[in-house]
């Protein structure tokens, strides 16, 4: 078992609830300030799955309530964080220039930007993962054989 730092504060929930706004704040806190707390949550949910990766592990993760809720919450959290950043940047720029903000344009730009970014990121990750996995797998298999 890996060792995790001890924390003072609220105990880890058995699983994050996508309908609970406090759990989104807790997840954002874990991601930015306490990543080992997130690792501890994942390890405690399923110690065997914690060390696995790949497509089969993703299928297994979807079957575990703690992992599934995390997979459902991440796109929502990313959308809200990206929107908050876009609003903050638009507000600062408009205040510096002394012009009013077209909030519908900011909302549309943030929504399109997040959607395109996630789609391109997933497509690139899958394509590169498969291509590099096959290329290195064949090269190392032939070289080792």
Description of the structure:
- The chain has about 140 residues and is mainly α.
- Helix content is about 75%, strand content about 0%.
- The mean pLDDT is about 85.
Strand content: under 5%
In angstroms, what is the radius of gyration?
A: 20 Å
The largest β sheet comes out as: none
State the helical fraction: over 70%
Count of individual helical segments: 6
Distance between the termini: 34 Å
Order of helices and strands: HHHHHH
Instruction: Give the overall shape, derived from the CA principal axes.
Output: extended
**Coarse structural class:** mainly alpha
Task: Tell me the number of strands.
Answer: 0
Mind sketching the topology for me?
Elements: H1 21-32, H2 35-45, H3 47-50, H4 55-63, H5 65-97, H6 103-144
Helix pairs in contact: 1-2, 5-6
Essential attributes:
single chain; 145 residues; mainly alpha; 77% helix
Short description:
The chain has 145 residues and is an all-alpha fold. It is built from 6 helices and no strands. The chain is extended.
